Amino acid sequence: MELRIDQTSVDRCRALSGSIVAPVEAFIAAHSTVSVERAVLRLLGLDGVGRDEIPVPNVVVESLATPVLARGIALAIGKMVAETGLNPAQAGAAIAAGELDLAQFGATPDEAARAALAPHVEAGMRRLRERRAERGERLERLKQLPPPLLYVIVASGNIYEDRTAAVAAVEAGAQIIAVIRSTGQSLLDFVPYGATTEGFGGTYATQENFRIMRAALDEASERAGRYVMLTNYASGLCMPEIAALAAVERLDMLLNDSMYGILFRDINMKRTFVDQHFSRTLNAYSGIIINTGEDNYLTTADAVDQAPAVLASQFINEEFAHRAGMPDRQIGLGDAYEIDPGLEDGFLFQVAQAQLTRQVFPDAPLKYMPPTKHMTGDVFKGHLIDALFNLTSVMTGQTIHLCGMLTEAIHTPFLGDRALSIDNARYVMNTARHFGDEIVVKPGGTIEKRAASVLAGCEVLLERVASIGLMEAIEGAFFADVKRSPDGGRGADGVFARAPGYLNPFEDALRAELTVPA
Amino acid sequence: MELRIDQTSVDRCRALSGSIVAPVEAFIAAHSTVSVERAVLRLLGLDGVGRDEIPVPNVVVESLATPVLARGIALAIGKMVAETGLNPAQAGAAIAAGELDLAQFGATPDEAARAALAPHVEAGMRRLRERRAERGERLERLKQLPPPLLYVIVASGNIYEDRTAAVAAVEAGAQIIAVIRSTGQSLLDFVPYGATTEGFGGTYATQENFRIMRAALDEASERAGRYVMLTNYASGLCMPEIAALAAVERLDMLLNDSMYGILFRDINMKRTFVDQHFSRTLNAYSGIIINTGEDNYLTTADAVDQAPAVLASQFINEEFAHRAGMPDRQIGLGDAYEIDPGLEDGFLFQVAQAQLTRQVFPDAPLKYMPPTKHMTGDVFKGHLIDALFNLTSVMTGQTIHLCGMLTEAIHTPFLGDRALSIDNARYVMNTARHFGDEIVVKPGGTIEKRAASVLAGCEVLLERVASIGLMEAIEGAFFADVKRSPDGGRGADGVFARAPGYLNPFEDALRAELTVPA
Amino acid sequence: MTQGVKPYGDTMNDGKMQLSFTLPIEWNEAADEAARQLAVNMGLVDVQVVEGRKIATGFSFFVLYASTPHSVDVDNVKASPARAHAMSMEEVDAFVAENVGRKIRVAGACIGTDAHTVGIDAILNMKGYKGDYGLERYHWFEAFNLGSQVAAEDLVRFTKEKDVDAILASQIVTQKGSDVKNFTELVELLEAEGLRDRVVLVCGGPRVTGLLAAELGYDAGFGRGTLPSEVAAFIAVTLAERLRRSGSQLFA
Amino acid sequence: MTQGVKPYGDTMNDGKMQLSFTLPIEWNEAADEAARQLAVNMGLVDVQVVEGRKIATGFSFFVLYASTPHSVDVDNVKASPARAHAMSMEEVDAFVAENVGRKIRVAGACIGTDAHTVGIDAILNMKGYKGDYGLERYHWFEAFNLGSQVAAEDLVRFTKEKDVDAILASQIVTQKGSDVKNFTELVELLEAEGLRDRVVLVCGGPRVTGLLAAELGYDAGFGRGTLPSEVAAFIAVTLAERLRRSGSQLFA
Ligand code: B12
Ligand code: B12
Ligand SMILES: Cc1ncc(COP(=O)(O)O)c(C=O)c1O
Ligand SMILES: Cc1ncc(COP(=O)(O)O)c(C=O)c1O
């Protein structure tokens, strides 16, 4: 399929995003957060929980006074490692057990700390490289089917039921499995620990749950002869830590949006910006594809009106990702099929939007979300809306295809719902496989006009944002009609300015290996 | 939507159909059948049943020796009317009651008979004109929605349950109601009488059933503010009689195919050709739209292979209709969405066929039949196949749209099935209303190539048929792989050559008013 | 009609219905029969297993059509009182002016960890729902929208501070009974604080029914497709009624 | 597994199923509750009426999800014997050559007024079904396809004339029990003519099950998606078995 679009307007939008993100990046470079520091600890091998089930990385970070923490948790741990000869994991355990106090090693020279840490940092980096290589090897051996890649969610709340459901979905043809996170985990300022069997609307994201699901999918992949990808959620108060854990457990994708937490979870914007940067740097190096959350604009407000905002958010997410050293092939920008099914020619609008996104971001593995908001208890009708969504996806060459569920309005998917949903996608995408290649959009028609107006609207919005600044724009409710103040929201107290001599050895190592645009 | 097609090939196919049908028309002109004669009687007002429930028209026709019948039943009745002063209806009643013998009036001069009949013939013609005018007036006042016109079937076997179902369907948005005929009624050499409540797979086509449904739909039309059309089946051993009754009860459409009975019901070909001609002449004058049965080729053999045969049959049906004085706007040529849903790009083939038909017969109210053969007990999957059928129909501008039922493989439609089916069509056709106007088919693509090959295949087939003659071609199993001999099949004995002085006053009156190509 | 009503396929009282479900067994010849027997065990008759297939190792999916011999006595089915009094925004405002004589204070929230605010917003926001204005638009209502993930404690505290007349609690997530849990917690807390009788307590969400609300001890419950005016009318009428009984303008 | 099996939603034994049906009542607030009560009367629990709407004056359509407390004892569910012996065409031919020693004569027809020949053709025609060749293709079978709308009398007469070993009767139309009526007529006529025990009597059609066949007094019944080889194998084995018992080559 082809659509004529105004390329100069597209270029202008990219330039605008650059100038919108630049000042935020300056802020990011000068700050860190408790979750960034905890991620550093996890990469150094700290794990487990102390008293009251508090994760060791949290105990360790909280054990330091802000002025000390401001130079980076790595520096402190490095000193302790240099003094005690313990490795970082042992050091963490000792602190959590209350046997040793991290603060007491302050006197040690920074250089000694750096040196003591170096081998552990290298070990951490090696672990990331190994996992990434592993994925590459499997993808080579177990080829995926051509996109759209069928993506389904499991969300029973119980990781073991989720595993059953995931394996069944793979047999039905799923290529990507997402374990939906328990309601509001994004608001927890720690990552829960261990295998979990209780959750609301989803299953907790824990390292052990990641491991259990990855193992099951690796097995299923071998049987299916196709590598099946695993994804979860980073966005929230623990973006960097989840990114670290996902890298270690070889997840292949992560929901990771530069503004979702701010707008849809009232998480402090500074916290989010700093966190998303380090988490994405990690994702980039681990070869994890990020998925952004533009769909959220559409589920909470009118989809026709929000289209320009969605495109603008995609440009901003792209820019933030580039700044974190992420190549286009890892930037899964989000869109969704959320226009009112009762609207005459709504299908034309959906096609216009999907094709526009496809052409504006030619190398991005676009993530296309299914109809949700207008789904009702009429499962027969819902199945049809999903079918036209499936058709739109294959016509416009979307990459990551979230299969819609006929029971979307009713419950988190049953095993049988998932099978019907995958049948739907496979039937439609097979019978209309090359339909998109067969048609040309009539110049001056409804579809072309719609695409043009969305792009124009996006450019205007980006101009307004650029003129006042991103943080101010969010404060001015430019996005999703929600108003957030720079210092309000959850997790603000977890943000701090980097003191002179601040050390984040992984950030340094990663930046050295990734190509980050100046 | 637009498709490039080879117009010279199209013209050639029309010319070929002309030379295929011409000789058959010569045969038709020289013959009549018992059902043509019975239709004449019905138009003269004969009705009711005699002993053993045998319809009066049957009793009367059977009461004559072939040589006498060969001059036309009208002549005989005319003589009786002239002698007895009874009107035709009374004459028929007397004969059925065994009080008078039609044969005994042979001596009366033909002229006297003609004269005696004239007022009754005019009365009959007036009745047809009045019904047609009635329809016109209502269509004016109660505008239909734009096509595709949603058509659903009722088939409970009980005319009263059918009525309930029909009225419900109208409220759901149906524009055309078809009362499916009881299994194999086409094989009965008489038209059953009265209101019926028993039938297999459908409800008997009787004048009273027609009247009951028409009355219910007229009421529903007023409430809905849209004129709702009624249709039934002519094809079979009683084509002319059903055409007469349908005209009188103001049906708006009739299944009327020039070859269906021959190929799919093993009805004698000569009988069918003669019958279809007179029935179509009546349909033409009554303003009834005929629906042809090409779908039957697709349900009984592979839909991809049969495509050229379908197009060929459409050309032949068109030619026969023109020869009966029928304008394009009344020729509802049939096609169906029967390609295996498991075939990759099958949707492209369906679109190609539908668009080709649309462009080859620009003024015909095309009848598009839903998927049936590949429907299974998986009602969820079936609902999706119906959705792509609905999309194809609105994209390619089909006229008469038979709504597919998700329970096609299971039972004749439940009331709820029909509602879901209409919801499906309304949703898809509304959300994609003008999609067809938005797209151009890529030159040289799969769709264009497919359409071209179907047209070419059709031309070849028509050439072969033209070279040996239609009856011989049917004997040679050129159509639907079935072999029928000119003198075999049901109802052969009801065909006879017209003797000198043969009279069918309605044929004469109709030909005088219709424009029939020489 | 007084006699029981049965499902309608294509004939009165044929009792026809469609079912679909998954069984945790491998599909094979016998599986279809197992599905049929399950339906028979459920008391269904004329059972047809029209589709049966493997959807995964150890799991089979089935579609059935069958007749139920059961019926329902529709005459004794009562509509929930909640939507009894239909009034337009103007009518409600007039009614309140007349019968309450002051603005009604309403506090709405999506309680527990539930963050689905679209529903409660539809009831409260100016904009409203399906062309029916939200409570903020009413002249005689003062609406407070506390938003999402509001703890029962906070909602109760707010109720006290602001002398709220009516509480609107929303629950969209129902998995594992979280909605019932949260609704119950709220009503119990109100009772503990002795506030229960001082407020008109209303719950809502796609799975809420009048019946559930009654069981939970709420004054009313609103489900799928509720319109703001229906809620406003219920609150106004109920409150006026209480005022009439108590003869005074409660804590005005 | 020995304990009863229940439907599986997302957790073992949750018993979840989906239902849909139409009630002949006007839709309103109470109608949803009526639908719920019907499900409750059917013995379902956790009933959720997730969709309820007017589809016509006096008719409402509903979609429900609910849990059934019932289960099915899968261990005691037997597959129909019909498809027991899987053999390829070659194997069947070899088996017949060895155990029958002459061609088996089979007559197939779509009986009564039923004109749906595609099914019986799929079993008999060379071409076969889903890549599985039809009986006409078998070396050791002689297949007669009498086509559609064959009266029981004619089929029986043919059986006598041609000394047919096996009869294949097809019924696709099932409305108002026409299939059962026609199948019964055939078997009774065969009995009246004293032919019943001389032939392997097989019925088939999308709604046919082994159970139905047994009830009707047929040797076997084949349903949805039958393959010709399954039918051939059954006929061959059954006939050979009878020959063995009777020690002779029946009417050879
Ligand atoms: C939009 C949406 C979201 C948005 C919410 C944005 C927002 N600010 O509200 C986002 C993307 C954030 C989201 C997130 C999640 N969601 Co959500 N979401 C939906 C969705 C698609 C639409 C809900 C909606 O807006 N409906 C439209 C409104 C107008 O209808 P309504 O809510 O029913 O409200 C009406 C009536 O119920 C009534 N009403 C409602 N409340 C009240 C209160 C009172 C007092 C009264 C009188 C009336 C009333 O009046 C309203 C107007 O008529 C539904 C699926 C669906 N189609 O229903 C899933 C759905 C509700 N979500 C679901 C889940 C599981 C989640 C998550 C938990 C998933 C996860 N693990 O991440 C998260 C977590 C959010 C959280 N912490 O609660 C599930 C719930 C399953 C279940 N039955 O428990 C659903 C059903 C999807 C699914 N099938 O899995 N979701
Ligand atoms: C094709 C078709 C037709 C064609 C038939 C052409 C032909 N020569 O067969 C035409 C267009 C003529 C037709 C007409 C009618 N049809 Co029809 N038709 C169908 C359709 C779409 C497909 C049937 C089919 O071919 N299936 C494919 C074959 C391969 O599957 P099968 O028949 O199940 O056979 C397999 C097994 O059952 C088994 N099998 C079958 N028979 C036997 C016998 C033996 C001995 C064995 C061992 C195995 C066996 O093996 C086969 C291969 O696996 C179905 C709907 C559907 N999708 O099922 C409706 C359907 C069967 N028809 C139906 C009806 C009502 C009719 C009509 C009566 C409608 C009318 N009033 O005009 C007419 C009348 C015909 C008549 N007199 O019987 C209804 C039956 C409803 C019911 N349950 O009673 C159906 C279900 C459609 C519907 N929902 O209304 N039909
Ligand atoms: C980008 C992104 N992150 C996270 C989430 C969900 O996380 P939570 O519900 O825990 O906030 C979503 C859900 O839509 C999302 O789009
Ligand atoms: C043109 C035509 N006439 C008649 C019929 C059905 O009539 P009967 O089943 O009585 O032969 C059909 C059914 O497909 C048809 O297509």
Give a concise summary.
The complex is a heterotetramer, with two copies of chain A (518 residues) and two copies of chain C (252 residues). Chain A is of the alpha/beta class and 518 residues long. Chain A contains 21 helices and twelve strands.
Q: Can you characterise this structure?
A:
The complex is a heterotetramer, with two copies of chain A (518 residues) and two copies of chain C (252 residues). In chain A, the strands form two sheets. A nine-stranded parallel beta sheet of chain A has the order 7-6-5-4-3-2-10-9-8. A two-stranded antiparallel ribbon of chain A has the order 1-12. The radius of gyration of chain A is 23 Å and the shape is globular. With 518 residues, chain A is α/β, with parallel strands linked by helices. Chain A has helices spanning 7-29, 34-43, 56-62, 66-69, 73-84, 88-96, 110-141, 159-172, 207-224, 239-248, 260-265, 269-286, 295-300, 303-323, 346-360, 379-395, 415-431, 435-438, 446-468, 470-475, 505-513, and strands at 31-33, 149-154, 176-179, 229-233, 253-255, 289-291, 331-332, 334-336, 367-369, 400-402, 439-441, 495-497. The mean pLDDT of chain A is 96. In chain A, helix 9 (207-224) links the parallel strand 3 (176-179) and strand 4. Chain C is an alpha/beta fold and 252 residues long. Chain C has seven helices and eight strands. In chain C, helix 3 (118-124) links the parallel strand 4 (104-110) and strand 5. In chain C, helix 2 runs parallel beside helix 7 (228-246) and helix 4 packs parallel to helix 5 (178-192). The longest helix of chain C has 19 residues, at 228-246. Chain C starts with 15 loop residues before the first strand and ends in a 6-residue tail after the last helix. In chain C, 52% of the residues are buried. The mean pLDDT of chain C is 92. The chains are: A alpha/beta (518), C alpha/beta (252). Chains C and D meet through strand 1 and helix 1 of C and strand 1 and helix 1 of D. Residues 181, 184-186, 233, 235-236, 255, 257, 260, 265, 293, 296 of chain B line the site of one pyridoxal-5'-phosphate.
